[in-house]
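Table S2 (text version). Query chain:
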Amino acid sequence: MREYGLPCVVAVNNFPSDTEPEVRLMAELAAEAGAETVVVNRGFAQGGDGAIELAEAVVAACERPSEFHLLTPDGTPIRDQVEAIATRIYGADGVDYLPQADKDIARMEQLGFGTMPVCMAKTHLSLTHDPLLLNRPRGWRLPVRGVVPSAGAGFVVVLCGDMQRMPGLGKTPAYMAVDIDQNGRTVGLF
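Corresponding structure-token output:
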């Protein structure tokens, strides 16, 4: 969050199986890492009442002055945006572009998309492309295998590692037929 000039609120999501020493340690580690506010969120066990303190902390952070800025200025080329995200946010030593990614970026530039904002598609289980690399590891490089446009949305998607994209919904997704009838039964699922 410091890279964006924003105050950082860390929520330690507390589950009934967590011990108090574990919760305290997480809060201490977050504070040591630079969190301005650390809140134990007990929403899982207590519902909305358990998340009130977190909500109040987020509201307070939003009301504080900040020096928000983008990671890279508008108009930054795709490669420079990816490099900034990989090194400054994820902690990578650099970026490796596979041949298809090089071709894709050249095509994005040819189409006039060479400075569109990027959306990184990578595993949610790690800051890296590899779900087995935990925390913020050191000594790794981010492999980029492709770049695809989301022209209507105004960004490009950078595909990292083995990440697969979900297929888009059809013109009329199946959920449109789901409803509840006058007897309170769900209809349209099958």
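Notes on Table S2: Helices lie at 20-32, 43-46, 52-63, 78-90, 99-110. The chain is about 30% helix and 20% strand.
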